[in-house]
Amino acid sequence: MTAPEFAALLAFATAMSFTPGPNTLLSTALAANFGLRRAWRFIVAVPAGWTLMMLASALGLGALLSALPWLHATVQGLGVAYLAWLAWKLARTRALLTGADERAAVGFWQGVALQFVNVKAWMLALALAAGWVATSGGRSTPNPGERLAIVCGVMVAFALSSNLLYALAGSLLRRSLAHGSRLLWFNRAMALLLVATAAWMVALPASEAGAAPAIEAPGR
Question: Are 75 and 117 in contact, with CB atoms under 8 Å apart?
Fold first, then answer.
């Protein structure tokens, strides 16, 4: 991978990883409700699940999503239902929780599974597979395995750092949210944002969610 390609990859990873989405919203909410230590399970689950999804995309699962509208609709429906369920649980949480209290918690395996029903994560994986792994300069790459390893390494670092940053913000709010009904209103606001994310997933056309965005790598 050339230096310009790698620089473009870093810029793309920054834009996609640090903008708000289901993962960052949940990292913030979990740290605010449970504390940073309990939120680590989900923070680590995001890059783990995304890496598995990236590998699946590189092996052709993304193309299968594009070719089968019913599969896209199923993934989209599962994602919307899961986000709505998490929002409902979060909106009903009124008091700070401990690590032993599993109400409104999202564990490691739930976090991994969320990546596979997260349309934003699929779009990112498909764009990277098309723009940085499979092709370079408009031609097929001779070393897709090596490029896939680089992409996965970069995205794991960015996914971990972005979700940790959002979780730190949530943990800093924890003491302030313990007073009065602040936590309830905070959770309801976060739940509303999750619902808005689910609505965006519904409105997203299949052509955009089931195929890689038109990302132009350097030289293309």
Answer: yes
The 8-class DSSP code of residue 139 comes to E
**Measured in whole angstroms, how far is the alpha carbon of residue 188 from the centre of its chain?**
21
The gap from C-alpha 62 to its chain's centroid, in whole angstroms, comes to 16
Question: Is residue 189 helix, strand or coil?
Answer: helix
109-129: b or e for each residue (b if 16 or more CB lie within 10 Å)? ebbbbbbbbbbbbbbbbbbbb
Q: What single letter denotes the amino acid at residue 99?
A: G
Burial 72-89 (b: 16+ CB within 10 A, else e): beebbeebbebbbebbee
Q: Quick one: pLDDT at residue 162?
A: 94
Please give the Cα distance from 195 to 121 (Å, whole number). Answer: 17
* Tokens describing residue 204: 């997203």
pTM to 2 decimal places: 0.77
CB 210 within 8 A of CB 127: no
Can you list the positions of beta strands (E) in the chain?
Answer: 135-136, 139-140
When the pLDDT of each residue in the chain is averaged and rounded to a whole number, the result is: 78
